[in-house]
Predict the structure of histidine kinase.
Amino acid sequence: AQAALAQAQKMEAVGQLTGGVAHDFNNLLMAVLGSLELLRKRLPDDPRLLRLLDNAVQGAERGAALTQRMLAFARRQELKPEPVELNRLVRDMGDLLQRSIGPGMRIETRFPTGLPPALVDAHQLELALLNLVVNARDAMPEGGTITVAGRLAEDAAPMLCLSVTDTGTGMDEATLARAQEPFFTTKGVGKGTGLGLSMVHGLAAQSHGRLVLRSRPGAGTTAEIWLPVAAREAPGQATAHGPEAVAPG
Ligand code: ADP
């Protein structure tokens, strides 16, 4: 499970990097191609100059085709947000989570009944939860309890919180400040990729939520993934007859 997780983290990071670079690069190349076409109209009828221009256009077109391939690769990692019952997701991952923790550890779950579903990519959230549980495990070399909990907070907008709490080493302020940075790890070469929390942070941010870390050295850590509540479609209220359909205007 450990190697698979590290692999998934790397693929995720490569995908995000590729997608971002390809997107920006494509925009640049489109600007270059546009300028070259304008130039073609203004160029004097000199075969040598036209050949140079054709070379430049061909190069830019080849680059654009390459960025298209890169985008196609990155698009596979695009998020598909859907309503997700947090307690069901955690229950379904039970065996996998059990196998990821060490001896002398146990996982406790706390979910109030009647939590609304969260709006998030289910597969990515599974990966995020696995990351948090593995971090909790790594922080408790002497064993202990990992608590996975869900709750609803109704401040300005209702938000759901999926949290993982350990009773492990905790983090000092400097570590806490950098923990979500990509490639930041204190686990040593070959052990940590430093991509776990940055992936969780990225997922939370892209889901219009956030990742909050609370930690005290020696006392343990709580990682909270905050997610928006999925709008529940009221039964018997087909969208065409919903309130917006009768609104004036
Ligand atoms: P990795 O686990 O590969 O090191 P992460 O991004 O998941 O990468 O974590 C970055 C760093 O944050 C870890 O190396 C560790 O120092 C710290 N950290 C993360 N989770 C915990 C935790 N539950 N308890 C203590 N430290 C943690």
